[in-house]
Amino acid sequence: MNNFPPVEEQLKQIKRGAVDIIPEDELIKKLEKSYKENKPLNIKLGCDPTRPDLHLGHSVVLRKLAQFQQLGHRAILIIGDFTAMIGDPSGRNQTRPPLTFEEARENAKSYWQQASKILDKEKTKIVYNSEWLGKMNFADVIKLASRYTVARMLERDDFTKRFKSGVPISMHEILYPLAQAMDSVAIKSDVELGGTDQTFNLLVGRDIQREYGQEPQVILTMPLLVGTDGVEKMSKSYGNYIGVNDSPKDIYGKTLSIPDNLIYTYYELATDAPEEELAEIKTKLNDGKTNPRDIKRALARKLVEMYHSAEAAKKAEEEFDRIFIKKNAPDEMPEFVMPELKEGRQLIDLVTGVNFATSRSEARRLIIQGGVSVNGEKITDFKKVIKSDGEIILKVGKLKFAKILTE
Fold it and tell me: Of all residues in the chain, what percent are helix, strand and coil, respectively (each to 5)?
């Protein structure tokens, strides 16, 4: 009995959310051989435990590794306790500060504790690259270095920029991609995963595998998840992250702070929502009658459920509503019944409809100036369509509140 789904089915799952598969035809051949021989592929993900805290940005590539795992392949997580002592310059103008061996090992414990919330604990093989890199002597390093040219190394985008601008490039930085490539050689990697900022390093792995007589790995890159600010990639240093170990309250609240244009991306990359659900979400988001906030709340609940529980998600939502939606709202306020709210009404019509503005122009000015909020969310788009199946709290200025019901 074959342990793998048909190749076409595997490929569809593998390609979900991916940026590049290099080269795709080689991946198909590997999958076909794996299927024919009923033998799993070695799927490699390397991580340098420079920081012990994981966030949803890290989860994107971890989820892809988990997908390969679910398809029946062998997930190999390489903890870069040795390379962490070098410092990876990928995507940086300055090198990442190196760690001591003890710091790297300590961070690795925390990394796995969080990564195991995504990966199957029993089916994940964890290895430390100090096991082979730590055994290499100087002659081995020279031999490895002879297999790659300086010209090829300087093709890397960040090296090119630094070289042209006169920013020093240390020799240990040049050795980093070679050390990472030796990880692929050591485990006989068939596919290596990484973010788009790792593309060059992963390609070096292909070249070095060839030099050591191995069939080169296929590389699969995933996008860098934009953080809650909607501008920079998710990073703890930018303060725009949602942590895997965050409390239910924080995961829920931070998720509701993401821009509407990132809702679908988060569903696709940070959850396991099936294709049918993704298609439905995309349709709803493109429908002007749908309030994106409702979909965002569902996303927030889903993320809390993934890293905590359904009960925790329910409590987090109730607490958020209690603190933020009803914040400063008086116990008694005027109520208005607007059945048409089920189909959606523009915010400017709501403001004038409850007599909080004497004209549409005044309502427009109030909205643009940030003086109007719906369920605790400030809205500055006067054309925004508000939709609800129950009730909403409309606030204009600091003192005007209205409860709008659909029946």
Answer: 50, 15, 35
Mean pLDDT to the nearest integer, 374-384: 87
Query: For the chain, how many residues are written?
Result: 407
**Six token digits for residue 75:** 């997930």
Determine the 3-state secondary structure of 372 from DSSP: strand
Place of tokens 């204009």: 396
Residues 390, 348: Cα–Cα separation, whole Å:
19
CA distance 197 to 308: 30
| Rounded CA separation 392/376 (Å) | 10
Largest CA distance in the chain: 83
Q: Please report which confidence band the pLDDT of residue 93 belongs to, taking 50, 70 and 90 as the band edges.
A: very low
Q: What's the distance, Cα to Cα, between the start and end of the chain in Å?
A: 58
CB 23, CB 29: distance < 8 Å: no
| 57 token code pair | 């940005």
**What does the pLDDT look like over 140-190, one tens digit per residue?**
999 999 999 888 888 887 788 888 888 888 888 888 899 999 999 999 999
Q: Are strands 191-195 and 385-386 parallel, antiparallel or unpaired?
A: unpaired
| Model confidence, pTM | 0.76
DSSP string, 249-281: HHHHHHHHTS-GGGHHHHHHHHS---HHHHHHH
Angle at 46 between CA 73 and CA 43, to 5 degrees: 15
Look at residue 299 and tell me whether its pLDDT is greater than 80.
yes
Q: Do the strands 391-396 and 335-337 form a parallel or antiparallel pair, or are they unpaired?
A: unpaired
The 10s digit of each residue's pLDDT in 346-370 is 999 999 999 998 889 889 999 998 8
Buried b (16+ CB within 10 A) or exposed e, 131-155: ebbeeeeeeeeeebeeebeeeebee
